Amino acid sequence: MKGLPEERAAELGRYIVENRATVRGAAKKFGVSKSTVHKDVSERLKRLNPTLYQEVKKVLEQNKNERHIRGGQATKYKYEEMHHRESGSAETGEKEPA
Question: Domain span at residue 23?
Answer without folding.
Answer: 5-66
